[in-house]
């Protein structure tokens, strides 16, 4: 055996040498190619420079851009797209006197927060040329200020799932034409968030700017996406309204107080976007589940605070009750101390003194408010986050659900507000203990359940596993099939002989995966996931070459099925599949973005 | 400050850490040392919570070992691995083909790669969601000023800026020095002649072509004319070279003398060793709102306020800026910086190579005076 291996090894190295020679002589001149990144990585030569192993990681969100290198745990820079970041070099007006007070004149977009986001969800009004220029600007800024050293030429681009194609096309065009990148790999952020938490399956709750995206990821594949508008933008506006109202009150500006409506046009004149972000970053917090439950069951205590944003008539009543409170200064106890927030951007500048508990309200109303609709009757894009998580979980296949519910990852900008992650997980746990995974709810379902319990003793044989699942998932399809009253999700699963055998054979994976409980897991974020992937030299599915993209644009992409999918698997070790797989691809795909 | 021109980040980190690299491992070792030394817990200042950096390192090593286990390829640097012979499974399959011994088939099942698994423990980088109540309690105890502001968060890493050294520098100044021009209140609808000076940082003479739209973009469109858009700039040679060689033959500065103080179209204004000046004529547009402004909002506060007569103008609408397209051509040694253009071919060192640099830039002139405000003299 040893001898044959020896001969074979020498044969392979011979072949390697001849191949190398061939490729070198093929170019016509006998010199060593200086910057042949592609050949160097294909041969994975130990003499290759560090730059070949490294890749750049860019993450584009609608508010922030992160850029860095794959061998580092944090991005080199996190840049916003706001007007301050877009200033020309040498424009120091930001530090001039009275700059904060002039923000009303400085309106760049129609909306209060429009100038600070790279794109809007409604692409009909988006000037894509401008978006491309802003992308170029922010990437150039990152290049020249933060990514200083010799840049690797591979780029991993992290995007939210189902990124709109017009934006994707703009983004790729801007990157390919301005920055001479030969190869861009697209990666989807929920998968990378999963990787950055050390998992392979998870339910990723990404509370971003425009929307909250809930993605089921199983074995590093995205299964579904649920979206809701309840996210950072709405939260910012709620906080802005709160600050506007309170600053007015502190001015004793009673005639203006009546004029404070909840529409966004008024908000845009009261408090600047920057200051609202500052307040959100500093003092916003989120109640934990028990506190929120207490408030919900005893709404009369803080009704004035809870219902402030819902309807005009409610606002009126609340302003009256608040007016009654106004005589006495807010009690400052240790559990709910008064926070003093100096506001510069209101006219005139105001100091808002509010108890700490008031700063939890925007989170409450935007993310977890269930009072606006009868249960389960929300508009498609305004389902509260915990209900959406529950819906997403219950629509996952059963096995996947068991795995995913024990791996809930809450990420995104808003999740950094203290308490939000705990609250999401706790609310989902509460929903699960209340309902199980029963999909049918309501009075009729209750009655039917009772009826079935009565006739329960009548049916003889317990249904087989397949049948049981069917009744559980689609009870309304076949009313003749009797319902199981005890939820199968709560029962212990039958011992699987194959699983046991696998466990015997592989003692490392002896521990069965945690499943069936609601559990939250921390992640390092999608960017760190991209950096981990960049380290592992895993070949991505959606790899786009510069010349091919510039020839045909997005239209040149072929469907995912045409290109080998197996290359994304982790079983493909470092460098292992390169020689055997198709080598240079003739076609390319957008993968999950297609 | 820096020892080497490259790898600035590592050098910066070194400086920030007071001379030595502080890796995650070292911190972990220090923590372990503190714990094992049996000191009372009050003195232990390092928290048990792994930093994100440490978690990243753990995850990285976890995935590396998983990849090793699953692919069983012994060394990624092994050349043979690039051709798919690296894994024992593939190897034994091929050996089976050659030898015809069926035993290899059985081997294959034995060495079948284990599927990758997820991280299970904290040492592998997994971190379960902790409680956040402590943070909220802490928020209650510190006031507004005790919490990290956005700018603090943003400025964690200090950016280092390097100026590119191959772009001609530009300067703009007034032609007639007799009447002092207030750049913050340029008189509208009156032509201003400006001198645009370009300095060449390269060691080769460059040919410059300038272009600009005849009207500046934006709502307030001012007229711009470059009187001499094509010219040459001398090389950035040694100052002594010029002093010695130019001697008596040429004047140090060549000026369009025929037209004293008067700009002439198609001719450069002034020229020196590595700089050239041309004349730029600008007619600032009027800020008078009548012809070009959209209808003001009815009843809006600004419209009622007489102090804000020009309120409908947005910030910076009165700034006069000229977009300028610059194209520079020059010839240089092909091996001068040996990188981009596939240089490095032996024997071609003396070859001159044509290079081209083209970019847009913006010249800031000043602000146009508001029609209401009197121009201060």
UniProtKB/TrEMBL annotation, chain A:
Biased composition, class Polar residues, residue ranges: 583-594
Source organism superkingdom: Eukaryota
Listed Basic and acidic residues bias regions: 469-479
Annotated transmembrane regions: none
Gene3D superfamilies, A to Z: 3.30.420.40, Actin, Chain A, domain 4
Region (Disordered): 1-50, 300-351, 453-512, 570-594
InterPro entries, A to Z: Actin, ATPase_NBD
Bias kind Low complexity: ranges: 9-24, 36-47
Alphabetical list of Pfam families matching this protein: Actin (PF00022)
Signal peptide annotation: none
Record-stated family: Belongs to the actin family.
Protein name stated in the entry: Actin-related protein RO7
Organism encoding this protein: Trichoglossum hirsutum
From TrEMBL, chain B:
Superkingdom: Eukaryota
Residue ranges of the TM segments: none
Name of one Pfam family that matches: Dynactin_p62
Region (Disordered): 1-52
UniProt keyword list: Acetylation, Coiled coil, Cytoplasm, Cytoskeleton, Isopeptide bond, Phosphoprotein, Ubl conjugation
Subcellular location(s) per record: Cytoplasm, Cytoskeleton, Microtubule organizing center, Centrosome; Cytoplasm, Cytoskeleton, Stress fiber; Cytoplasm, Myofibril
Assigned GO CC terms: dynactin complex; stress fiber
Assembly, per entry: Subunit of dynactin, a multiprotein complex part of a tripartite complex with dynein and a adapter, such as BICDL1, BICD2 or HOOK3. The dynactin complex is built around ACTR1A/ACTB filament and consists of an actin-related filament composed of a shoulder domain, a pointed end and a barbed end. Its length is defined by its flexible shoulder domain. The soulder is composed of 2 DCTN1 subunits, 4 DCTN2 and 2 DCTN3. The 4 DCNT2 (via N-terminus) bind the ACTR1A filament and act as molecular rulers to determine the length. The pointed end is important for binding dynein-dynactin cargo adapters.
Family: Belongs to the dynactin subunit 4 family.
Name of the protein this chain belongs to: Dynactin subunit 4
UniProt organism field: Trichoglossum hirsutum
């Amino acid at each position: 055996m040893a001898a044959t291996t020896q001969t074979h090894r020498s044969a392979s190295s011979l072949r390697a040498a001849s191949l190398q020679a061939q490729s070198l002589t093929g170019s016509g001149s006998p010199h060593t190619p200086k910057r042949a990144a592609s050949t160097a990585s294909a041969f994975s030569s130990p003499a290759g420079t560090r730059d070949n192993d490294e890749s750049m990681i860019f993450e584009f969100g609608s508010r922030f851009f992160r850029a860095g290198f794959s061998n580092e745990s944090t991005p080199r820079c996190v840049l916003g797209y706001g007007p301050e970041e877009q200033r020309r070099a040498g424009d120091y007006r930001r530090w001039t006197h009275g700059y904060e007070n002039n923000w009303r004149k400085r309106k760049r977009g129609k909306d209060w927060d429009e100038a600070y986001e790279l794109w809007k969800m409604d692409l009909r009004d988006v000037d894509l040329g401008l978006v491309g220029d802003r992308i170029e600007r922010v990437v150039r800024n990152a290049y020249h200020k933060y990514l200083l050293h010799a840049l690797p030429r591979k780029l991993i681009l992290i995007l939210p799932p189902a990124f709109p194609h017009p934006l994707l096309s703009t983004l790729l065009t801007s990157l390919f034409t301005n920055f001479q990148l030969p190869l861009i790999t697209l990666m989807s952020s929920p998968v990378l968030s999963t990787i950055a938490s050390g998992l392979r399956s998870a339910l990723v709750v990404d509370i971003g700017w425009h929307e909250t995206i809930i993605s089921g990821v199983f074995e590093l594949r995205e299964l579904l996406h649920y979206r809701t508008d309840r996210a950072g933008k709405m939260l910012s506006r709620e906080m802005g309204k709160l600050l506007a109202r309170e600053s007015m009150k502190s001015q004793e500006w009673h005639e203006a107080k009546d004029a404070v409506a909840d529409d966004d046009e008024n908000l845009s004149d009261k408090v600047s976007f920057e200051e609202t972000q500052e307040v959100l970053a500093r003092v916003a917090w989120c109640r934990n589940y028990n506190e929120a439950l207490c408030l919900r069951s005893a709404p009369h205590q803080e009704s004035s605070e809870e219902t402030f944003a819902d309807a005009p008539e409610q606002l009126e009543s609340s302003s009256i009750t608040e007016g009654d409170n106004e005589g006495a200064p807010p009690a400052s106890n240790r559990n709910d101390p008064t926070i003093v927030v100096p506001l510069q951007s209101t006219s005139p500048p105001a100091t808002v003194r509010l108890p700490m508990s008031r700063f939890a309200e925007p989170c409450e109303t935007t993310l977890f408010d269930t009072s606006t609709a009868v249960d389960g009757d929300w508009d498609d894009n305004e389902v509260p986050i915990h209900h959406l998580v529950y819906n997403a979980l219950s629509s996952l296949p059963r096995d996947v659900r068991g795995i995913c519910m024990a791996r809930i990852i809450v990420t995104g900008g808003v999740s950094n507000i203290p308490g939000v992650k705990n609250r999401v997980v706790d609310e989902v746990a509460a929903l699960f203990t209340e309902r199980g995974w029963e999909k049918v709810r309501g009075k009729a379902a209750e009655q039917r359940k009772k009826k079935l319990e009565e006739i329960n003793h009548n049916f003889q044989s317990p249904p087989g596993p397949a049948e049981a699942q069917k009744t559980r998932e689609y009870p309304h399809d076949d009313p003749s099939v009797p319902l199981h009253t005890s939820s199968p999700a709560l029962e212990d699963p039958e011992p699987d002989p194959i699983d046991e055998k696998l466990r015997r054979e592989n003692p490392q994976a002896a521990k069965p995966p945690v499943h069936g409980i609601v559990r939250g897991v921390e992640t390092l974020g999608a960017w760190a996931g991209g950096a981990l992937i960049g380290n592992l030299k895993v070949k991505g599915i959606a790899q786009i070459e510069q010349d091919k993209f510039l020839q045909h644009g997005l239209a040149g992409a072929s469907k995912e099925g045409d290109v080998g999918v197996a290359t994304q698997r982790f079983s493909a070790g470092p460098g292992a599949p390169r020689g055997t797989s198709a080598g240079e691809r003739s076609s390319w795909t957008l993968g999950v973005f297609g | 400050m820096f020892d080497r021109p490259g790898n600035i980040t590592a050098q910066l980190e070194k400086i920030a850490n007071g001379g030595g690299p502080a890796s995650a491992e070292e911190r972990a070792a220090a923590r372990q040392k503190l714990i094992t030394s049996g000191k009372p817990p009050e003195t232990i200042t390092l928290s048990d919570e792994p930093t994100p950096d440490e978690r990243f390192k753990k995850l990285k090593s976890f995935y590396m070992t998983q990849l090793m286990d699953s692919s069983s390829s012994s060394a990624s640097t092994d050349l043979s691995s690039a051709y798919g012979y690296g894994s024992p499974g593939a190897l034994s399959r091929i050996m089976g083909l050659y030898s015809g011994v069926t035993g290899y088939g059985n081997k294959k099942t034995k060495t079948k790669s284990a599927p990758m698994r997820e991280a299970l423990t904290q040492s592998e980088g997994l971190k379960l969601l902790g409680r956040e109540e402590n943070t909220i309690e802490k928020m209650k105890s510190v006031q507004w000023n005790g919490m990290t502001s956005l700018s603090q968060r943003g400025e964690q890493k200090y950016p280092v800026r390097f100026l590119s050294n191959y772009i001609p520098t530009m300067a703009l100044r007034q032609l007639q020095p007799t009447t002092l021009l207030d750049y913050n209140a340029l008189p509208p609808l009156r032509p201003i002649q400006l001198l645009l000076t370009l300095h060449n940082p390269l060691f080769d003479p460059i040919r410059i072509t300038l272009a600009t739209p005849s009207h500046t973009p934006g709502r307030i469109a001012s007229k711009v004319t470059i009187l001499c858009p094509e010219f040459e700039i001398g090389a950035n040679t040694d100052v002594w070279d010029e002093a010695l060689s130019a001697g008596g033959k040429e004047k140090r500065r060549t000026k369009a003398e025929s037209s004293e103080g008067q700009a002439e179209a198609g001719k450069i204004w002034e020229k020196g060793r590595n700089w050239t000046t041309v004349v730029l004529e600008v007619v600032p547009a009027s800020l008078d709102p009548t012809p070009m402004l959209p209808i003001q909002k009815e009843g809006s506060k600004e419209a009622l306020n007489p102090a804000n007569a020009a309120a409908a103008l947005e910030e910076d609408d009165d700034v006069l800026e000229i977009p300028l397209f610059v194209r520079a051509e020059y010839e240089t040694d092909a091996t001068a910086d040996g990188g981009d253009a596939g240089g490095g071919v032996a024997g071609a060192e003396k070859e001159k190579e044509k290079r081209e640099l083209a970019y847009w830039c913006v010249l800031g002139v000043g602000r146009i005076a508001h029609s209401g405000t009197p121009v201060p003299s």
